[in-house]
Amino acid sequence: MRRLGLSFLAMVLVASTAHVALAKGKKAPAAPKGPAPVAKAAEIKELKGDYKWGMTPPQVIEKINAKIDASFKDQAEKYRMDPAKSDSVRQQIKNEKTRVAKSLTKFDGQKGGWDVSIIDEEFVQNNSESMLYYKEPKQTRYFFFQGDSLYKMFVAFDKDVVAGKSFAEFGDMMQQKYGKAQAIHREVAMHGKKNKILDAFQWRSAEGDGLRLVDRSKFYDVYCLVIYDHAVAERQTEIKKANAEKLPKGSIVDNVIEKTSERDENDNVVDRITGKEVLKPGESRGGNQNIKVPSPTSGGKGEMKAEERAY
């Protein structure tokens, strides 16, 4: 029970931290004026690669498996006459394909590590959505399905690709590749003053795709490209907004957000449930008590090892 309580509190704290700016005056991005610029068709085609909207998870996995086979082609040929090394290469290929297949996750309402991860804003629970992912040479690509139909890909660049660039600098680099983008700003209230900060860059394609560059550097030190079937994504956004409006006020998460810098009468709710004392971040009693929460870097149906990220 203590372990369960700690895990629950950790997820609440991470979710609260991610949304605290919104609760403290951070507003949603203002609606842009006019449509986004059209991105270069050749670059959109390259980004989408062999994947097409409407593909099923097995069809996407088949394409990924072909890429895995191609990535090991040189090694397989090099060790063709060496039975031991040839077997090792075949096992690596098998392991890679198994990892991809096992990454398929259905968002059927059961909360897990993905709800507090780099993709936590990209799906809706209990809405016939699913996701699988594949680690490419310099990025990780997440595939999102609505009713087993591919409609979005989320590409998280590796840290060495970002290479210390600010979001604005990286945005300039992406505009050189895809063409002039529409910059989206978000209004943030701090110390009684309202400031506008750069929130995203977005484009569209002549075929009905949407493309946006988003900043995930606050928690994950990376920037991400999201390409999607615009019509489907709009419907998903409306569903997400409707679900958010249904959330009850006064929940545990609300209490944490409302009381980020002070203790309140409900802050020991996990203690009361478990009968054990749970220390808050920064507190310690009898050694290191840092709470560790999931990181989205490990495989296996979206479940992530708690020891991979500590807060």
Strand segment count:
10
The average pLDDT score comes to 78
Side-by-side strand order of the widest sheet: 1-2-3-4-8-7-6-5
Number of individual domains: 3
Structural class: alpha+beta
Distance between the termini: 21 Å
Unreliable stretches: 1-26, 251-311
% residues in beta strands:
15-25%
Shape field:
globular
**Major β-sheet, in short?**
8 strands, antiparallel
SSE string, helices as H and strands as E: HHHHHEEEEHHEEEHEHHHEE
Helical run tally: 11
Residues in helix, %: 25-40%
Based on CA atoms alone, the radius of gyration comes out at 22 Å
Word description of this protein:
The longest helix is centred in the first third of the chain and has 22 residues. It contains 11 helices and 10 strands. It folds into 3 domains: 84 residues, no CATH class; 145 residues, no CATH class; 46 residues. The protein has 311 residues and is an alpha+beta fold. It is globular, with a radius of gyration of 22 Å.
